[in-house]
Amino acid sequence: MRIETVEAFYLAMPEIRDIGDGSQDMALIRVRSDDGTTGWGECEASPLPTIAALVTPPSHSACHGVLDSVLGARIDQPADIAALAGVVAERGLDLLQTAHAWSGVEIALWDLLGRASGEPVWALLGHRASHARLPYASQLFGDTPEETLAKARQVAAEGYRAAKFGWGPFGRGSVAADEAHLEAARAGLGGDVALLVDAGTVWGEDVDAAAARLPALEAVGTVWLEEPFVSGALAAYAGLADRCRTVRLAAGEGAHNAQVATHLIDYGRIGYVQVDTGRIGGIGPAAAVARHGAARGVTYVNHTFTSQLALAASLVPYADVPDGALCEYPVEASPLATGLTAGRLRPGADGLIRLPDQPGLGLELDLEAVRGYLQEVEIVVNGRCLYRTPELVP
Ligand SMILES: [Mg+2]
């Protein structure tokens, strides 16, 4: 198949709130091949610079827009996607948004190849089976400990066996204030639900500030402390890992290539590596990180906080890990994110979620449900239109 068109759609909620909720807008990608097959992907990225990175004219030989390399390319097997990834990376070396923009295209190419060959993407990737995942309810801390308590009670009542609280006020006030949120989370979840905490890079690279919270985190049995620092702060990660007794560090969602994630494993000494396929360059590099982590005793977990399309893509890289491994499962996603797909990956009677066995990523989109969120964009340079919002029709 030859790639004939790549379309990008900028979708957004009517109001973007200044909170750590990445599901409020979306860069959705559709690829079409010359035999009429379609594939869909989502970038975990700000939509407008992502569109620009797709269509920008070249600045020089190592600074091409992504579509320069993708349009007209032949995709007949998984190795063709990996080869194209290399071309895009080389020709987009100096364009920092390349990985974010390519991620959605890469995912859409896997979906397209799966649909064309009649196979689910996890099988195309070489997995013999797709195993069930234990979803953890992923949500933000409440603004107050009372709100955190109520949120914890809610997800425990819904039957989740693991829950994560993140961002919001955590780490921004006193140690005592954080302690109150942690105690509220544990009280609301009860003793049997695993508690995960996401600091949302709040401490930059300040190891002492993070370490001051370790006694409280460990007292409530926190399984992992996620993103105490920005992704590149490898020395800070390693320094904090030295001071942890029972809690382990988790990071990787900020990785925009496999090296960033593998360096967090090798030099940051994290215990859990969390990869967003919509940011790291797609399913191929995410699977490489999963293999690297497995060989070093580091547990792979998906990162996703947006649509079910992104969720499905994020589960593929480690679908071969046996039943019961944790997966991030957004429970507070926006109506845009939840409306995007007609089908949903819901926990079954056993509380586990499973990837579909249908071709591609196995989810059909509900374009009617999200058309109202489409943003009209036009990029014109010297009278030449480089981009105009395509029609969101089947
Ligand atoms: Mg996070």
Explain what you see.
With 394 residues, the protein is α/β, with parallel strands linked by helices. The protein folds into 2 domains: 3-123 and 366-388, Enolase-like, domain 1 (2-Layer Sandwich), CATH 3.30.390; 128-339, TIM Barrel (Alpha-Beta Barrel). The chain is built from 15 helices and 13 strands. Strands 10-9-8-7-6-5-4-11 form an 8-stranded parallel sheet. Helix 7 (175-189) links the parallel strand 5 (162-166) and strand 6 (194-198). The chain is globular. The model has no long low-confidence stretch (mean pLDDT 97). Magnesium ion is lined by residues 166, 198, 226-227, 253.
CATH-level-2 architecture of the largest domain: Alpha-Beta Barrel
Ligands (ions, cofactors included): magnesium ion
Quote the average pLDDT: 97
Low-confidence stretches: none
Quantity of strands, as a count: 13
Order of helices and strands: EEEHHHHHEHEHEHHEHEHEHEHEHHEE
Overall body shape: globular
Query: How are the strands of the biggest sheet laid out side by side?
Result: 10-9-8-7-6-5-4-11
| Count of the domains | 2
Helix count from the secondary structure assignment:
15
Question: What level of helicity do the residues show?
Answer: 25-40%
CATH topology of the largest domain: the name is TIM Barrel
Helix and strand composition category: alpha/beta
Under CATH at level 1, the class of the largest domain stands as Alpha Beta
- N-end to C-end Cα span: 20 Å
Give the amount of beta strand, in percent. Answer: 15-25%
